[in-house]
Amino acid sequence: REGVIYLARKELCNGIVTTKNNLINIAKKEGLIAIQRLFLLDSAALKTGEQILKHNQPDAVEILPGIAAPYFIEHVYKELLCPVIAGGLISDKSEIEKLFQKGVLAISTSVKELW
């Protein structure tokens, strides 16, 4: 909590990416971009994630693994309408193109060749 407030007030970042629900609200109050990270492991995680997003109303959502993002968009996105970032388990450019075609706004990857 204090770390997010410090970073915002010292203008050391533009936003945060976090799984922690309470930090989304703090970041938004401090004027930062707030991206909610969700791990979609099963249908229960999808349902919980939907509730979290409705409550927190982040600026965007990052779905992990990235290959689950199209499923999320198909089943949840229409009600939330926040940008979707796909992260994790993305290994080539063809996967990225497919994700963009399915409605993903951006990709998060550590594979430098895909940057």
Helix fraction, binned, reads 40-55%
Classified in CATH, the superfamily is Aldolase class I
Q: Largest sheet at a glance?
A: 5 strands, parallel
Strand order of the largest sheet: 1-2-3-4-5
> How many DSSP H or I helices?
5
Shape: globular
Structure characterization notes:
With 115 residues, the protein is an alpha/beta fold. It has one domain (34-114): TIM Barrel (Alpha-Beta Barrel). The chain is 45% helix and 20% strand. The protein has 5 helices and 5 strands, in the order H-E-H-E-H-E-H-E-H-E. The chain has helices at 2-9, 21-29, 43-56, 69-80, 93-101; strands at residues 15-18, 33-39, 60-64, 84-87, 106-108. It has a 5-stranded parallel beta sheet with strand order 1-2-3-4-5. It starts with a helix and ends in a 7-residue tail after the last strand. The model has no long low-confidence stretch (mean pLDDT 94).
Short description:
This protein has 115 residues and is of the alpha/beta class. It has helices at residues 2-9, 21-29, 43-56, 69-80, 93-101; strands spanning 15-18, 33-39, 60-64, 84-87, 106-108. Strands 1-2-3-4-5 form a 5-stranded parallel beta sheet.
